[in-house]
Hints:
The structure is a single chain. By secondary structure, this protein is mainly beta. Helix content is 5%, strand content 49%. The protein starts with a strand and ends with a strand.
Amino acid sequence: MPIGTAPRTRSPAVLVAASRGRIAWQRPLAEIFTFRNATTDGGWNLDRVARDGIFVGSVGSKPVVRNGKATFHLGVSMTAGFGISDGRARWRSPGLYSCGQPLPCPGRSEFGYSSAAAPSEPSVGIRFVERGIATASRQGVYPTVSRNASVTLQGFDLRTGKTRWSYHAGRNISLIQETGVPPRIDVQTVVIHNGSGRLLALNLATGGTRGVSASTPAWCQKTILYRLSHGGYYGGRSGQYVGQGALYSCTVSGSRTASPAAVPALVGRIGASIGGLTAWTDTGAVHAAPR
């Protein structure tokens, strides 16, 4: 059952679910996401979790705009679980659903496509509970984050919304701005400084941590930005967009290293694999190596 924003229904915004070519249900967005100024105009991140009979995710919020500058209050966010069959909210929790944006959730597909025939469902949800303010002067530019901004990562049960583990990452600009994925040691382990500045490996499934050295081998991802002209539809203006992330062999400090002769399972989950060969995209080329 796909879900989306109802066409021509923007005031108030309405979520609509369809099944077999018919509308199954429709509800005002504010009935599910009950925080002030909730809007899909600020983006959305929703997963269908069929085993629990719910959609789980977040939508954005409308910023305050003065003199051409948009101000976002980072603490204004909500993650909700609502029924696939009826759209009724099952639970709500503070925080921004972050599976795939920017962290990989255990069990969730990391390919650049999805398939209704073989859906990929996360086994653990991840949300960001943030504090502080972000400001942006024009579209397509990463916002400036206030000095008091901070982010706490929470792993949670998708069925109930209850927190399983918590990790305070402090003023981590790349996570708050969603400019890239932290270095990854394996499929479900990333490396992130904690609020005290210590470099730790964090297991996203369990919340377990361990210390690592800056030279520990890892794989890094980098956001690829590109500009695209809108042509006549938007009056010939161009805009900046985010493409699929580049992937490369590195240390957890972010320094590039030579790619290994055979790549780990992690690369196969992000790239494309066939016949024992895995291909992936870097910033300037496409690479391939045996699995």
